Amino acid sequence: xxxxxxxxSPYEKRFPTAQLQQQHLQLKLQQYQSQPPVYDHKPSFTLDxxxxxxxxxxxxxxxxxxxxxxxxxKYYAIKxxxxxxxxxxxxxxxxxxxxxxxxxxxxxxxxxxxxxxQDEQHLHMLLEYVVGGELFTHLRRAGxxxxxxxxxxxxxxxxxxxxxxxxxxxxxxxxxxxxxLDHQGHIKITDFGFAKTIDDRxxxxxxxxxxLAPEIIQSKGHGKAVDWWxxxxxxxxMLAGHPPFYDNSSFGIYEKxxxxxxxxxxxxxxxxxxxxKRLLVGDRTKRLGNLKxxxxxIKRHKWFRGVDWIGLxxxxxxxxxxxxxxxxxxxxxxxxxVDDADxxxxxxxxxxxxxxxxxxx
Length: 361
What we know:
Structural class: alpha+beta
Number of domains: 2
Distance between the termini: 71 Å
CATH topology of the largest domain: Transferase(Phosphotransferase), domain 1
Number of strands: 9
CATH class of the largest domain: Mainly Alpha
Strand order of the largest sheet: 1-2-3-5-4
Helix content: 25-40%
Radius of gyration: 21 Å
Oligomer: single chain
Largest sheet: 5 strands, antiparallel
Number of helices: 11
CATH architecture of the largest domain: Orthogonal Bundle
Shape: globular
């Protein structure tokens, strides 16, 4: 009986050794680190140059809508924030930080910010429109993802976090609702409202309760390690259909996070359980991703064996979910929102009370 040859990973012909693959990957990542962003500091247009149509998402002090640029008929997502509400809710620094960070980054798995502008009432952020909708929607539809699907999305997120950390940026809000799928099904991280550039640590309490690392809850000061904790929570939620720590109250969630007892469903692969035990470590000095080799320790873990990291960066690896859409401005992959209030209805009113908060935005 003829023994069948072992199936090799798709990149082994290009890179016969793991060392060669790692060297080539590091070279590509360095190229992205020096790549200029697409942000335009002095846009020559206003909101009147766009047709604003469907609502893509809503928040406490604004919304994101689909916008078609009248000159080129190209589609964008436009984030409109009401100045008075941003100031009232003490979110000025978060909004300014989001703009500053997105204006300096450019990576395949991070949404692009093209420009920002403002009027008397509102702040406007013109973003890349990502037609595939939220990963959250696809996860809820599926109930849970398979091991291979989860590894695909986790791999792209690892590369994105590694890129952000190389620029001393922590993201701090990793969750399915903030992950979009592009037209090919690849990840695009969005909503950088909690992202921050740091030298060492910061003490701001922010994030989604189920995803908070223990050091954030305990106000010990936190840094890049919180993103690797959140990655562990996300991988668990994709595989199980729910996060590992949940309760009816935020306080109950925090208690369970600090207790640190994770119950793994029976269908979890042994390798992913090992990875999660190394990510969901209360002591950040022992947490995978925060050790000497950084993100490389995560990429070398056996659960990621066979991942074509370079193919992911080049987007030549086929995604497990390829979104269905009829045209570039199709919004069927997003939830439908009732247009109960127009954030730009008061455009004609003169109100300069909050201008000094947003000088240069």
